[in-house]
Each structure stands twice: as structure tokens, then as C-alpha cells.
Amino acid sequence: MQSEDFRHSLIESFKTQSLKIQERFGDLARKQLMWQPEFDKWSIGQCLYHIWLTNEKYLKFLGHSIRHCNIHSSPTAIYKSSWLGRRFIHAVGPRGFAGKVPRTIFPTYDNVPMDIVAQLVEQFVAIYVLLEDCKGKDLER
């Protein structure tokens, strides 16, 4: 896939996901958001907060790297994820790594913010703004 097409698909994906999150979970009461199907299973709120925490760990680093990248590529350049990148994407996917979640991104029942849906939607906006900043830059770098 060409780099520009890939970048646009990521932007559209984050826009779509932020709308879905807002529509599906934005009007839930705290009790509904924090309901756990079983004692050892995460609630919707915990899942959303885990995503937020994980993204937050990378956003500052990626933002700095993208804004200070002086390596440009052609919009028709082909984007190809590295072996390590593919492994990472698989590991964090729904069928990926099932190991212990690190404490820094483990959402306990009590630490989920009241406005986690709004915070995650806001974070997704920051991500697609960051993706806009990637325009013309070598995404493999």
C-alpha cells in the first residue's frame, strides 16, 4: 500500500473508532461502564482506560519523533511494516499476546476516570492530528 493511502486509512480508522466509542459508550452511566461480566474480567471502562493508558505511553515519543523528522518520502512510496512492527501489531491485537499486563497499563476498577470515554475520544483526535503531521514523511523511519 502506498504511504499516503496507508496514512489516510489510519486517520479514517481513528475517526471511525472515535465515533463508535462515543455512540456505544458515551451515554452509559458509570455503573454500566464499570460492570464486569465476571470478577476477573475487565469492564468496558477498564478496557477503554487500558487503551488510553497504552496509547499515552507512545504518544509523546511518537509526537516528538514525527515533528522532528526531516526525512521525507514520495506520496507514492510503498509502505511496508517491518518484521518487528508486524509482531508488535499482532501481539497487541485481540488474538495476540495473552501474558500479564504491565502494572503501568493495568486498569483497576477504582482508577478508571469518570470521563474515560471523552478522554479516549479526545486522544484519538490527537492521534489523527499526529497522523496529519506525518504527511510527506518517511513512515518507515
Report on the architecture of this protein.
With 141 residues, the chain is mainly α. Helix content is 56%, strand content 0%. The chain has helices at 3-25, 30-33, 44-67, 83-92, 116-133. The chain is elongated, with a radius of gyration of 17 Å. The relative contact order is 0.23. The mean pLDDT is 85.
Q: What shape does the CA trace take? A: elongated
Radius of gyration: 17 Å
Helix content: 55-70%
Q: Tally the beta strands.
A: 0
Describe the sheet with the most strands.
none
- Report, as a whole number of angstroms, the end-to-end distance: 16 Å
Low-pLDDT parts are none
Element pattern in H and E? HHHHH
Strand content: under 5%
Per DSSP, the total helix count is 5
By secondary-structure content and strand pairing, the structural class works out as mainly alpha
Q: Mean pLDDT across all residues, rounded?
A: 85
Gist of the model:
The protein is built from five helices and no strands. The chain has helices at 3-25, 30-33, 44-67, 83-92, 116-133.
Notable features of this structure?
0% strand; 56% helix; mainly alpha; elongated; 5 helices; 141 residues
Topology record:
Blueprint: H1 3-25, H2 30-33, H3 44-67, H4 83-92, H5 116-133
Helix pairs in contact: 1-5, 3-5
